[in-house]
């Protein structure tokens, strides 16, 4: 999947969990929970949403890497980027 | 001497017989005995940097904060609120507040502006301690409505119209003499939800520290020097009673992780910090269980001696998983905001009966009662029968009131008991088994959420005519908050409006209290007086036959007859 499509899926799943969040100014390198109000249950629902939307199974160990937009794109495109772009919450 | 007399004698009391102060027993007592160099806290921040504070350092810093409050004009009995994540300053400020004999109330940082505003204004908070980020996000806009709030102390960057925590602490002396403190003096305020009406502020006294210590030793096996981890946030009662007070009083070293849940991270904490005693919750355990036992076993958690759980029923499946993941039995405990300390538990030296909570703690007389027993007062039911769990009044950590609401306080007592609202049964061996709540409270991720507070926020949306909120069974978090909404004329029931209302609720309540799911329903079931019947909504959700509206549902606060 092209990166722009993947980006749309990720943001769509995030918006589904937190419809009130303004995602337009989201810094892709910083964690979601630094920028918008989500709790750990939201986070889990977000991961489940991505699994369903993409028809993939995300390994438990990869969950923390999904905590930023860059991290999501790296994990979901299957091409890990530099570790400092995937901050752990 | 009775059990509580002995438990009380095990503490020191303020020097010169000047009473009991929680902060003295938690901190200064150890320093006076020469244990000031023992580590009290190991704080792990989001980036895994560890900051330790010894008992001596906590004593001096909390002294500084008590002086800060005194200089701000805080008097005994004034309400001091803290809104922050699990950072060192929260713990220091909490203990300093108790030293200054002000009443401490910590708020969960995930609360949205509405629950924060309601709690601050209801208790007429004089001072709020928070962080620069939380101040900007939650407090700044509310400030004009909080007329009793004189001072805000901000941790972090300089913020207009607030005091800087760092500046005030730097200027304050690290010597402070705790003034005489009556054991019955109010120390802690914890808000808890109701099915009707706004959240209730349960008050606890300094004397509760006797129960904090005794129960932590008995039910959690806490001893001086143990490395201990409590997952609860100080915004909830467990995070204060067993995340702050009890481990310090016992002389343990408490691990505090300010990060969010992440299975690998949690196992890493257990492994790297050699956690010996761990107090967690079924929701956390289910989230760990989802990752499988293999992940658990890839870490070395062999230092773990005792695992205890609180907040919701510990199902047998979790006990079995605990055995495979940690080679340990998970021991259940039961208590509430109102009881202040653990009332029922399976202690470390007792074999776990999967599904049962355990027996009443020493010094606690627990019964299963019917509210309308013989003579119309609560009285025990037949052995083995289902009924409401009731605790005989008089234990040290029993709550002393709901802030400003004496009628609601007396309503939960009867026949010499505190009535818990939890339906249980007791087996022939004296073990208690949880059945369900007697009321419509929602148990979500271990937090008790009152449907009324959620409904009130939803009703503020211009499109919402009526709303009923229930707990929907959830495999991970026990129950999730679900709202049924009917619309005012002229509003179209569509996906966009649904998202808008959900976002509206989340902006006001914060993610933890807000519904996870909203559905439109134009046929909300009502009592004859027009009250939405949550029980019928719940029955529909569960797919069971609807109770007869005319006979089964009576308004809680008013008789319909």
Automatic annotation (TrEMBL), chain A:
Return the SUPFAM superfamilies for the record: ACP-like (SSF47336)
What's the protein called, per UniProt? Acyl carrier protein
Which species is the source of this protein? Defluviicoccus vanus
UniProtKB/TrEMBL annotation, chain B:
The protein's matches in InterPro entries, at most eight in alphabetical order, are given as:
AMP-bd_C, AMP-bd_C_sf, AMP-binding_CS, AMP-dep_synth/lig_dom, ANL_N_sf
Keywords assigned by UniProt?
Acetylation, ATP-binding, Ligase, Nucleotide-binding
Q: State the EC number(s).
A: 6.2.1.1
Gene Ontology MF terms: acetate-CoA ligase activity; ATP binding
Keyword match Ligase: yes
Q: Which residues form the AMP-dependent synthetase/ligase domain?
A: 30-403
Q: Which Gene3D superfamilies match?
A: 3.30.300.30, N-terminal domain of ligase-like
- The organism sits in which domain of life? Bacteria
Residues in domain AMP-binding enzyme C-terminal? 453-531
**Enzyme kind, highest EC tier:** ligase
Q: What is this protein called?
A: acetate--CoA ligase
Q: Which organism is it from?
A: Defluviicoccus vanus
